[in-house]
Amino acid sequence: MAPNDEQSKAYCANATSDTNYYQYQVTLGQPQYWVEQTFYSLDYTERTVKNGTGVRVVFSITGVYSKFSFNAMMTTLVSIYMFFSFVTYTVDFVLLFLLPDRKLYGLSKYEVTDNFSELHASEVAKSGLKVQLEQARKVALYKQTSDVTALLNDMKAVVSPDHLDQLALACMDIFVQIKNDYPSAEQCFEQFILGDHSKCMANILLNHLREAYLVAINANSLEDVYMVLDAAKKAGNTSVEALCEKFLGSE
């Protein structure tokens, strides 16, 4: 340790060597350590205080210690990923909305492609009815009404009217039973339901029981009348129930 006070140096010359030895007087401030401990008897009637003193020794450990941690590694990687994602969004925002040539950047970033919906519809049409119904239900459940309309319009050219009715009914079922979206179901009914039996089922689904009854008797379908009767009983619609029973009685 280099001395700060020149007066604290004491030079000692060695007679047999040219080496010079230096003795430094360093003040540590409070080199002693003192502690007080108090002891009590079992009945707390006596107290003994012991004072302990000694030389204070301070150990200082330096160096680098490391240990692999999987959790720390994952936290770091996720943080880096989130940071770069944020950078991407920031750069996109600056390019598309702030810079003078933002329109040019927008044309370069997004590419307008052809409409592949007809090709997709033809591929679906080649599959079985079960796959088609599943596809229609997924579109009705996870996408907008306009997407359902586009799918059914594309399917209209490649499937039979009966199959189209079944696809439209599947979409209507999702709209009514899960989404409670009656306007979309009405729109699907008006645009795509063609057959009398399917119209009867669609009206029952929309709780238009009188309309369903009229469709059934106009088609002179006992099966559909029984279907409307069952729906009227479940809904507690006594007027439609009476109409159905009267028609069936006359037959």
Verbal overview:
With 251 residues, the protein is mainly alpha-helical. Helix content is 59%, strand content 11%. The protein has 11 helices and 4 strands. The chain has helices at 70-98, 102-109, 117-126, 129-142, 145-156, 161-177, 182-192, 196-205, 209-218, 222-235, 238-250; strands spanning 9-13, 20-24, 32-40, 47-55. The strands form 2 sheets. It has a two-stranded antiparallel ribbon with strand order 1-2. Strands 3-4 form a two-stranded antiparallel sheet. A hairpin with a 6-residue loop joins strand 1 and strand 2. Helix 3 (117-126) crosses helix 5 (145-156). The longest helix has 29 residues, at 70-98. It is elongated and about 115 Å long. The termini are far apart. Residues 1-26 have low confidence and may be disordered.
Summarize the structure.
The protein is mainly alpha-helical and 251 residues long.
Which series of helices and strands comes N to C?
EEEEHHHHHHHHHHH
List the total number of helices: 11
Tell me the fraction of residues in β-strands, as a range.
Answer: 5-15%
Average of pLDDT: 77
According to DSSP, the number of beta strands is: 4
In terms of structural class, how would the helical and strand content be classed?
mainly alpha
Distance between the termini: 119 Å
Query: What's the gyration radius in Å?
Result: 45 Å
Unreliable sequence segments? 1-26
Describe the secondary-structure layout:
Elements lengths: L8 E5 L6 E5 L7 E9 L6 E9 L14 H29 L3 H8 L7 H10 L2 H14 L2 H12 L4 H17 L4 H11 L3 H10 L3 H10 L3 H14 L2 H13 L1
Antiparallel strand pairs: 1-2, 3-4
Helix pairs in contact: 1-2, 3-5, 4-6, 5-6, 6-7, 6-8, 8-9, 8-10, 9-10, 9-11, 10-11
